[in-house]
Structures are given as C-alpha cells and as structure tokens.
Amino acid sequence: MKKTKIDHYTDKEALEFHSHNKPGKIEITSSKNMTSKRDLALAYSPGVAAPVRAISKNPEAAFDYTSKGNLVAVISNGSAILGMGNLGALASKPVMEGKAVLFKRFADIDSIDLEIDSSDPKEIINSIKNFSPSFGGINLEDIAAPDCFIIEEKLKEILDIPVFHDDQHGTAIITTAALINALDISKKSIGNIKLVVNGAGASAMACTNLFKKSGVPQKNITMVDRQGVIFKGRENLNKWKSSHAIETKDRTLDDAIKNADVFLGLSAKGALTKNMVKKMAKNPIIFACANPDPEITPEEIEEVRNDAIIATGRSDYANQVNNLIGFPYVFRGALDVRAKTINEEMKVAAAHAIANLAKEDVPDEVVAAMGGERPHYGKEYIIPSTFDPRLISVIPAAVAKAAIETGVARIKIDNFEIYKEQLKQRLDPTVTIMQGINSYIKRKPKKVVFADGEDENMLKAAIAFKNSKLGEPILIGKKEKVKEQIKKIGYNENFDIEIVNSKDTSKREKYVNYLFNKLQREQGMLEWDCDRLVKNDRVVWASCMVACGDADAMVTGNTRRYSSSLEKVIKVVDPRPGEIMFGLNLIVNRGKTIFICDTSVIEYPDADQLAAMAISASRVVRLFGFDPKVAFLSHSTFGQPITDRTKRISDAVKILKKKKVNFKFDGEMQPDVALEEIYKELYPFSEIVGNSNVLIMPSQHSAAISYKMIKSMSRAKLIGPLLIGLGLPIEIAPLRSSTSDILNLASISAYSADVIEYKKD
C-alpha cells in the first residue's frame, strides 16, 4: 500500500494561524443589509415584532424567519479531546471552532461552538435542552464514554431536532461504507461474515450497531475490550457492552481472530499482530483505525498477507476512514428537510451513498484533487476522496430521501435533481481550484524561486510550499538574514531549504551574459550595467534563474509595488510571441466565480488589445476548469448611452466576431447586466447576460479599483493578479500579500510551467 507524506507545521505556526488578524477561526456576520434607519427598524424594533408574533403562533415558522434551519450547535465538555484526553471545556474550543469551519467549508452550514464546563451528564443535558430552540441540529463532540451515550440518548428523547455524536455515528457511517465495498470486492456476503471489533468505546459501539443494521447478524460479531471478549455471562458489563455480548468460548482477541473475515480496530497501536493476521480467513478485511497510530500498519500486514483489503484512519495511506466524508453532508440533508432526528435509516442511506460513489467513474476534477492519478474501484479505493466535489450532491440527497421515507422530515423535496444542483452551488470554487492545482503539481514538482526570501510572509510561503510537497523552493536573500527569519518562524535555522544570492559568482556570470545579450541592442545597456542589475536586484536575479533554466517558475512582489516588480521582470523576460500581457484576478463571492482583467498592466487598452485580452483570458479560464463567457464592461449597455469612450469597446466585440472565436462573448454592457439574471428578459438576444464569468474592463483604472474595492469591502475570496502573456511562468504578489496569497501564486506559477508552452530564448 502506497504511503504519502503528511504536511508538517511548527507549534508557533499553528498558534500564529489561530491568532492572526482576528483570534480564532469563526465569526458571525449579518445576512441582511444594515445600511439605513429603515433596515435597522426592520431588523430590530419595531419590524422584528412581526416574525416574533408569527413564531409564537406557530413555532415551525422559526425555520422561515430565523437562521435556525441552517444552524448547528457544536458542543463539547472537553472530556475526550482528540487523542489528548480530558483537558477541560475551554481547551476544547479550538477543536469545536475547527468543526464549525468544516461544517461551513464542506456543506455551507453555519455553526456555533458551545463548550459546557461540566462533567455531570444531567447538567449537560439540561443545558442543551434549554438552548436547543435556537438550533436546527446538535453535534456532540469529544465527550467521553459512557457519558456521551447517556447524553445523546436522553437528548434524542426530548428534542425534536437532529442530535448527532460524530465520534460515534460519523465513524460508523464511513466504516460501514468501507465495509460494504470491501465485502463486494472480496466476494463475501454481509450475512455470513465473521467480524471482530477491537475496542468498546463510543465509536466501536456505533460502528457495531450500524453493521447490525446493515445486515451483519449479532451472533457473527465479537467485541473485545481491554479485559478481553465481551461474552454472555461476563461480570460487570454496563448496558451498552451487554447489548453486544454473544455466546462464545473465545476469551481473547487472539482466540476471536481465528478465521475472521473482518477486523475493525478502534483501540490502540500494536493491538493486532502479524501472527493474528495470519490466522484470518481468505481475503481478510482489516480496518486498523486507531489514531494516530493504527493497531497494525499496512506494511506489517503486507509482510504476511497479499490478499488483505486495508483501511486506516490516516491520510498517508489509501482508504482513509475520515469522518469528514460523512457528518457535514448528513447534517446538510437532515437540515434541508427539517428532520426531527437522524435515524438509523438515514445513516444507512448515507453509508450506501458513499459506497456507491466509490464505484462510479472518477471525474477529472477528482483526478486532479488526487494528484493526477485516476483511482479505480478496488482494494486501494473503497472510499471516495475527502475532496470529491460529488459528495455534496450525493450524500445529503440520500439522507433527505431517507428522512422523508421514514416520516421524520417536516418538509418534502419534490425534485431531487434540482435539489442536487442546488447543493453543488454551495461549494467554494476557490478551494476546489487550488486543491486541483496543488495536487497536479505534487505529481510533477517544480523548482520555484521565491525572490524576496528575507520577507517573513514570502519565507513562510516557501516553507509551506516545501512542507506540502508542492515542489522545491529556492530563496533569494542573504543566508544569515534568511536563517534568522527561519528561526523566528519556529524552525531550526538549518531547515533544509536552498538559499542563493549574488555571491554565487558562476551563476552571476551566466545571468549577466544572458541579460547583456538580450539588452545591449534592445536598450543599449552595457555589460557592467547588466552586472549591476543582476548583482543588486533580487527580482532580476530570480528572473534570470528561470530564463536560464536554473528554476522552473518564480514568485516575487510583496515588498515592493507591483509596477516596480513588473519593470524588473520584463527587462529579463519578453511577452509570449503573439500574446498580450495583462493582469487577471479570480474572484469568488457567494459561490459565483468571476475573472477580471486587466488589473495591473495596460493603462488604457485599445479595441485590438481588449479583443486580444479576451482571447487570452478565455484560454486561462479554461485551464481553471471554467467555460468562459466574456462580457466587455462599460457604463453603457448595447449602445445606450452612446459616447466616444464606448466605441473602442463595441469595436472589440466586432473584432472578435470577425475572428470567430470558440467562446461566448458580448458587450458593451454594465456590470449588473453581465452578472445578474434579472436582466435576461430585457436582453433576450444575448447568451451571456446574467451569467458572464470573464469581465473585460475598459481600463486598468476601473479594473484595479473594482477588484481592490471588492477585496477591501466584501468577504469575496481573491486569487491574483495573475500575470498573463509573459514568456515565462512568473507571478507578482501585490504589496502586503498574506502567506496564503503568495503560496497560491507560487502554486499557479508551478502549474503554468507544466501546462503552458513557453518559448525560451
């Protein structure tokens, strides 16, 4: 079984991540405009009285007039935090905030974390009961057994909203999905298998219950705890363990494992030995899911058997049993039909939906997300990838349908195909885009120069690039200063990363010769002028590295103005033959992705330049996985009002019509006409009104102002500007770019180095 490396981070980086900008990982924002006195009056007094009265008459109306229907409480008392144990309620808050982030990222569910400082189950139950009217669902997390059983059981009795303990049921759903497919591949019947569960905690109990619900007979399941096999007649068993006791003479795991078809471990490192594996039946299924270290490693299993199907809880092996594949989507489906509970039928439906998805042909975006290798249903692919974008449309639909069929849904979904399309719109495209790019370059790693190596954010981005196995970073800077910064970040000053500067005389000579040969006729520069440039400017040096083949790509900026960096780059690198150079920004807001240009290069493009920009932009947009629909923007729409300044824009449209390009375009038009569907009926002749995704601005001024206003005043996510049309894969980060922004540009430059044909001198 192939093993991959995991990203590594220092404690200091993790602490800085959680404290940067605003402390923590979540915040609350208003979903309504609050710009006028009238808005405030509607939001609060006296306007709020209307929904108050409506809800008092009909409590179900809370779903219509409040956030209740898309709001989940993430609750813990900190008694079982990850693998660290009982560290208290407050210490669990970073984990619960993280859970809230996952709900939002993967299923567009709003969450509030609530840490209850109590070890008394009754007190916790009462607390949740009292604040439950505010929420559409309750997610319990990191609560130790048996309290988690008691709390969940009681809450399910008294509340009319879903209550879900993810440690139990999330694990159970994914494990059941894995079991369904593993049995299918090994040609075994679920009703005839012998199954051994090692561990008797919350997760193990939930998995066993769902196995039984899915068709495994109780008599065929042997559960083992620290004292050995749980058998009928064993003393001092609580009611939960007693429910899994069977008639058997086996007393130890070693006894029980003989001829077992399936082993599920939710226990501790080393619990399953190679000798035990040898005793298992033909084509054994081994789920060693203890974290961080499994009961037995895949390598150890493969030393003694070559017929096993293996899964673990780790991301560095195939078939990771990861709750993230389950809980966000289960809640999504439950919330969308206003389910009163999450019952066993809904869990089984989720498990089968996950299992079936792994059997389907994998689309290209999943291939990209998995490093460029197309997985095929089989021993090493029994569970879909965590980043499979199809999860959002498949699992919630299955859960919602099961809720409706079992009578726990308050509302019905009439058309599930429309519902699935609506679900797809909830994903954040930027995450999917960058995941695909990063996975692609991991498969084909490049050397990327980080020109401003002494800058803290640039250095952090370079280290993240290396630790994430995206490629090999090269830092430009003074070695002593860079090492000082590395130490400041929290790494050993001798961290393995390449650092170069002008003291490297052999490379310096090569770069000077390259630059002199290029510029002596173009700009009348003398050899010592070129030497001075190479010696004194890191951007020039770094650009020469790429131009001379000592690196594949480059990222710079952050410490100087964009125009200043660009001026240095274009001394070394020419535009691609036959192309125009411009800046392109990717912007995502409320699930809609648009591309804006030119944000950074041509001040006032003429008609020919605007047309050329549209052609190049459409090519790039396709590389990101979008079908380009190009709108030429103006203050006028299709000639109204007519001014001298709109003519070059309409002329650009005419130029494209003559060229017969392979993308949709139109203009001139105002931005709201390009983006908002309400204008379709006014301009039925245009195919792109209301659904444009590439916006060609009339000038650099309008483009730069627009995207910077969006960046400063909205919650839109931005990538770029990307430098399009340059003859080499080089990107420039704007001033004050974050580590994440720089890392994205570095990844894009590495990606460009492989997918774009550059003509080198």
What does this structure look like?
- By secondary structure, this protein is of the alpha/beta class.
- The chain folds into 4 domains: 51-161, 3-Layer(aba) Sandwich (Rossmann fold), CATH 3.40.50; 167-426, NAD(P)-binding Rossmann-like Domain (Rossmann fold, 3-Layer(aba) Sandwich), CATH 3.40.50.720; 445-548 and 566-572, Rossmann fold; 582-725, Isocitrate/Isopropylmalate dehydrogenase-like (Rossmann fold, 3-Layer(aba) Sandwich).
- The protein is built from 30 helices and 21 strands.
- Strands 7-6-5-8-9-10 form a 6-stranded mixed β-sheet, covered by helices on one side. A 6-stranded mixed β-sheet has the order 18-17-19-16-15-20, with helices on both faces. Strands 13-12-11-14-21 form a 5-stranded parallel β-sheet, with helices on both faces.
- α15 (344-359) packs antiparallel against α17 and α22 (505-522) packs across α24.
- The chain is globular, with a radius of gyration of 30 Å.
- The protein starts with 10 loop residues before the first helix and ends in a 6-residue tail after the last helix.
In short:
With 761 residues, the protein is of the alpha/beta class. It folds into 4 domains: 51-161, Rossmann fold; 167-426, NAD(P)-binding Rossmann-like Domain (Rossmann fold, 3-Layer(aba) Sandwich), CATH 3.40.50.720; 445-548 and 566-572, Rossmann fold, CATH 3.40.50.10950; 582-725, Isocitrate/Isopropylmalate dehydrogenase-like (Rossmann fold).
